[in-house]
Amino acid sequence: FVDRSLSVPLTEKPSDEANSLFGTIDEATREKLEDVYSHRPYFIYWASLVHILVMIISLSVYGFAPVGVGLKNETSQVTSVAGGQQTVFREINQNFWFGPSFDDLIHLGAKFGPCMRRDEKIFREIESERRLERDNTGCCVNLQSQFCYQSVKRDCTDGFFDWIKWEGNSVVNLTGPNQPVPTITSALAANATPGPGCIADQHGQRCYRRSGSVCGVDPRTCLQPQSEYPHEWADDITKWPVCTREDTLRRDSIANTACEVSGRPCCIGNQGVCTIATKDHCDYVKGFYHGDKELCSEVDCLEDVCGLTSFLVRDNPDHFYRLWTSLCLHVGLIHLALTLIMHMTLGRHIEKLIGWFRTAMIYILSGIGGNLVSAVFVPYQAEVGPGSAIVGLMAALFVVVIKDRHNLISVSSIIIKLTIVMVIVFFLGLFPYIDNYAHIGGLIFGLFSSGFFVPYIGQSLAKPFVKYTREERRMLRLYQLGTTVLSLIGLVMLFVLFSVLFWNSQVSCENCYYFNCIPLKENFCKDLNHDLRHRQSYVGF
Q1: Is 254 exposed, middle or buried (0-12, 13-18, 19+ CB in 10 A)?
Q2: Which residues make Cβ contacts (< 8 Å) with residue 223, sequence separation at least 6?
Q3: Residues 433, 384: contact at Cβ < 8 Å?
Q4: pTM for the whole thing?
């Protein structure tokens, strides 16, 4: 963009002809121009190498998604929790960029809002499903084969199954916690189904549980920790402790623990949805099977969806580093090739003009800032790639052109070229997994970052063959100082503003994703539009 428009092109050393044309070049200016000529863009080379290595590792671990556009539907027969075979439907995300799937990109570190901070809309659904599990599920036991699974009553209606649900909550001993406990006979007389043990409260001991039973675990069979006064297990199965030692003899005498558990928690999709399923079923739908757990409330499905590292606090996603890691990822080989082309054309020349440190700072700040803007407006779209960083470099080139216009033969031609490339970049952002909101954010953050870093370059290159007067130098320094301070203030304010919007508010924009993806055909953008209405709770199978 700049080489052929410079008075002394970057591809040539300053020659004697340049001296005679512009006057004598002093030694300091000659050294600056020679430094520009001889500089090797090490940061751009390093960034390109990182992108290539990450792509190789990604494809080695996760492989290629099916090549195509939109979603592909498949069905198969799998083993069901109730025994026998069951027809299961699944949707497969296709990828025409020749790379990993949508879910794999999230696992690799894509920008995905629900993994970066607690999303109240998602966790309201999760809490609702946990309440359903607590209040409405019991152990469905097969009377012939002695296997069982956790379910609601409507999923345990076959004549060969017995649904064990504790309903007692009416018999209370008001004489105090040290007095005799009401007997099973008194519980039956009160038309209550007795649950195990007693729960102490301020009135005495309430001896019949409403929450439960649970397949495979019971307070009566656990020896460590024991459920006994004053440390009874809560009348809430979602708050039960993990039993580390059991009474095996008593276990075999209780229906909901003597049976073989056929279904365990399985985390499916990218919304943190849990279902009780067989391993065969879970593997087919590409879920995360928890063979050592009994209840969905025991697992954090969103942590499984996000991958990489565990959350520091359960149910509190904290992968804010995805603002950075997503810059190193690509949706496929075609996407990687486009990035390398931009690096070797635009990025290489920018680094020659402003140096590796300023290039790196603008690249990183624009990339992170662009992803932050995207996370505010389209948090449920998994987006990857350094598009925001590359647009930030375009903004830097624009600032360089404005600052050093005295050295350029044709400013308008450079602006036209930049505009054409910018249009192409935003056009690519209309395809799945590439983010136009990140591009806009990268442009804005790139302008402010360049305003802070590039003024120093303006002083070194502006009119290099003209001797400044003392007044001109003073005015130039004041102008650059003002530009630097204002740009820094603007940059900090932008980061603060969008950080507050992202972490403390939920921007609702149902149609924002259309700016990121035009539905050229049915299901072309379906996997990008996160819709909580399509959640299936764990009792849905």
Answers
A1: middle
A2: 245, 246, 247
A3: yes
A4: 0.79
